[in-house]
Amino acid sequence: MTARPIDLRSDTVTRPSAAMRRAIAEAEVGDDVLDHDPTTRRLEQRVAELLGKDDALFFPSGTQANQAGVGLLARPGTELLLEADAHLVHYELAGVAANWGVQIRPIATVDGLLTAALVRSALRPATPHVPRAGAIAVENTHNAAGGKVMAPATMEAIVAVARAAGLPVHLDGARLWNAAAALGVPVARLAVGAATVMVSFSKGLGCPVGSCLAFASSTVERARVSEVRKRLGGGMRQSGVLSAAALYALDHHLDRLAEDHANARLLAERLAECSAVRPSVPETNIVMIDLTREGDSAEVVIPRLAQAGVLVVPFGPRRLRAVTHLDVARADVERAADILVATLG
User: Fold this and answer.
1) One domain for residues 202 and 179
2) What is the pLDDT of residues 156-191, one digit of tens each?
3) Phi then psi for 294, rounded to 5 degrees?
4) In a domain, 126, yes or no
5) Are 136 and 80 in contact (CB under 8 A)?
6) How far apart are the C-alpha atoms of 28 and 47, rounded to whole Å?
7) What is the extent of the structural domain holding 66?
8) Do 214 and 229 reside in the same domain of the chain?
9) Within this chain, do residues 175 and 102 fall inside the same structural domain, yes or no?
10) What is the mean pLDDT of residues 80-106?
């Protein structure tokens, strides 16, 4: 029997465990639109507490929650300042413009991480000739930069610049759990000063679906968040069947994220021995793999790897991305590295 391919395309490919499925099956539910689903409400309150915010709302996806965060903070006709390779720039189908009439103001960086100095330099004096800044967005970890982590001091400095300019900050924290695990700090430490924070459950935490948008009530009212979610098609009914998975993950999967990070480092170390590739040095669970031989390209190499038993995704003409997750054990990573080296070496 052929072995199942080792799927490193994303940490979104995980399947709910038997225990998570039991939690889903046994979830207490209610109509969340009419009078709140009790399981979903428990999740929202727990996430708000973990992130140091006043409240949170459950969303079907991180993209929808991100879009809601921007829509709540930035007015039409203003600019959203953010890193040039951020998820909100490249992977949300121009939703910032289409949904809210807000213009993207990308800020180029060397390593994918914004700094207070870069944000300050991107702020333009108010004149009748250029759009005003409406909000700032930060991504932690930064997906396209290979899962890079933004340190708390960097975030706090950006927030200080934003406050001085009278601008709110949205934090795209799809993998904020990974950032907290890598830094060894409470996740709330990474969200200080952000008016809205999106966190995902369907990546490193292994849930089938779901994200939350947490917020400070001094900036955003819950009714307004609910209204924006509804406008985006996100009003849900017995959502507790989804929230139960997230609650289970917070209880059982947070502490094991360090295993994914260790597996990513192992993969990178093994690939560093192969002259045909140049792997990144992962800070979390993402390894970027650059192809060094002239004749290799992502388009050519990925099908060969799939046939050999390893699935990855393209992240540029000559770059591959591999992501470790809870469905990939150390032995799987060892085998994936052997296949990658044998196929590309």
Assistant:
1) yes
2) 999 999 999 999 999 999 999 999 999 999 999 999
3) -60, -40
4) yes
5) yes
6) 18
7) 18-252
8) yes
9) yes
10) 97
- Does the pTM surpass 0.90? The reply is yes
Count, residues in the chain: 345
**Residues near 202 by beta carbon (within 8 Å), at least 6 away in sequence:** 12, 61, 62, 208, 209, 210, 211
Same domain, 239 and 290: no
- pLDDT, one tens digit per residue, over 201-251 is 999 999 999 999 999 988 899 999 999 999 999 989 999 999 999 999 999
User: Nearest to residue 81, comparing CAs of 158, 152, 147, 191?
Assistant: 158
CATH code of the domain containing 155 = 3.40.640.10
CATH number at residue 335: 3.90.1150.10
pLDDT exceeds cutoff 50 at 1: no
- Looking at the structure, tell me whether residues 245 and 268 fall in a common domain: no
3-state secondary structure the chain: CCCCCEECCCHHHCCCCHHHHHHHHCCCCCCHHHHCCHHHHHHHHHHHHHHCCCEEEEECCHHHHHHHHHHHHCCCCCEEEEECCCHHHHCCCCHHHHHHCCEEEEECCCCCCCCHHHHHHHCCCCCCCCCCEEEEEEECCECCCCCECCCHHHHHHHHHHHHHCCCCEEEEECCHHHHHHHHCCCHHHHCCCCCEEEEECCCCCCCCCCEEEEECCCCCCHHHHHHHHHHCCCCCCCCHHHHHHHHHHHHHCCCCHHHHHHHHHHHHHHHCCCCCEEECCCCCCEEEEEECCCCCCHHHHHHHHHHHCEECEECCCCEEEEECCCCCCHHHHHHHHHHHHHHHC
Looking at the structure of the chain, the number of domains it has is 2
Q: In this predicted structure, what is the pLDDT of residue 276?
A: 95
